[in-house]
Design brief:
By secondary structure, the protein is mainly α. It is built from five helices and two strands; from the N terminus they run E-E-H-H-H-H-H. The chain has a two-stranded antiparallel ribbon.
Length: 84
């Protein structure tokens, strides 16, 4: 599956695709906690290669898996999906 472009346009407005925001926030939160992808994957009950592909915005991630990642990081799911 191809990753979305950095910005997309909808009704004349440009925005960052949700997968890219998730990838950016996930990497940042993981790095802040000093966790490897493998450590985060273990905490979330996911596979390391899956976490890596999420961080590269290669996957259309289910809400359940986003929630597992958020819980593993100790953040609200909105932290991983929000702007900023």
């Amino acid at each position: 599956m191809n990753a979305p472009s950095a910005s997309m346009e909808r009704r004349g407005k440009t925005y960052e695709a949700a997968r890219l925001r998730l990838a950016r926030h996930l990497r940042a939160e993981r790095a802040t906690r000093g966790l490897s992808q493998e450590q985060l994957a273990d905490l979330a009950g996911l596979h390391r290669t899956y976490v890596g592909s999420v961080e590269r915005a290669e996957r259309n991630v289910s809400l359940d898996n986003i929630e597992q990642l958020a819980l593993a990081l100790g953040v609200d799911i909105s932290t991983l999906l929000g702007p900023g």
